Fold this protein.
Amino acid sequence: MRSTTNARIAVVGAGLGGLACARVLHRHGRSVTVFERENSADARPQGGSLDIHSGTGQVALRAAGLLDGFRALARPESQEWRILDPATAAVLPVPGPPSHDDDSPEIDRGRLRSLLLDSLPEGTVRWGRAVTAVRPIGDGTWRLVFEDGSTEEADLVIGADGAWSRVRPSVSDATPAYSGVTFIETGFSDCDTRHPALAALVGKGTMLATADGRALLAQRNGEGHIRVYIAFRAPQDWQAAAGVSFDDVETVRAHVVNLLDGWDGSLLDFVRHSESGFTARPVFVLPVPHTWEHVPGITLLGDAAHLMPPVGLGANLAMLDGSDLAHALVAETSIEEAVLAYEHTVHPRSARAALDCAKALEDILPPQDA
């Protein structure tokens, strides 16, 4: 059996889960290389705000030795949820979506990723190294094939490369399927100064209004930025049917305002006056449960393993996956024992979480035939 000591470990993807895995391995003196297709840490925006839960994401950050650093950057006040009446914009006397715990402060995804990146030795992450395939060599070792035709060999390949993972096909035939829900993202910068009325509606954390299979969610991020999401159920080809092109901002704006016809004007202002254009974000998911037969020398974590609706669990689970896998590699004497122990944990855990996320999405946007 191949020993975990001095194993060549390759993490594919420098997202939160892959970086958490690399950081915990590094803390225990293990060598690891992270291959990332993007050319630099700031090649693209990293997305919105995340609530990091005490029982999952914070467990991983504690294992990484970064919990204090996280606490210094996080926004505990942004845990607040406000539910608004779509017809009047009045705050409703009902709680927001059920909290996973009482200690889940918010942090911008980019800040959290930087915290993890800065904790790794220089050179751990190899930027601009897009993996296009992984191929078995024999005896549980693998060859990573990169976009430029070059290759690297590894004793363990960890697929942390997200929804459209290039590693997943080596262990599973599953592919993401459209959930029937699309989010349209837009937003505001310096909202407290430039749009104080909208900022007041959002409050300190997240605002949600829902009606008739449509939802408007506004989420406070750091530095006065507010991200806005309009969610609705529609076929995957809804843009073509509606004659909407995201190259034409005003056409999208008009379509979304029409989608929210009858809503209070102050809520429509989140769409009418948004500053950052519009981006379509169709929601894709993996089957539930998504499991795979163990394949020597390779495994998955995060969205590559259990892509689920974006309702607050994905990033937390990805970091916990990474931490758990790293701990298994430190605790067990062989790579196979470590990966089997990890997979035995992650399969049932992710199945439960995926069902919870699907239920949460249905609560916000009930199926149209319900």
Notes: The chain has two domains: 9-78+102-176+286-364, 179-283.
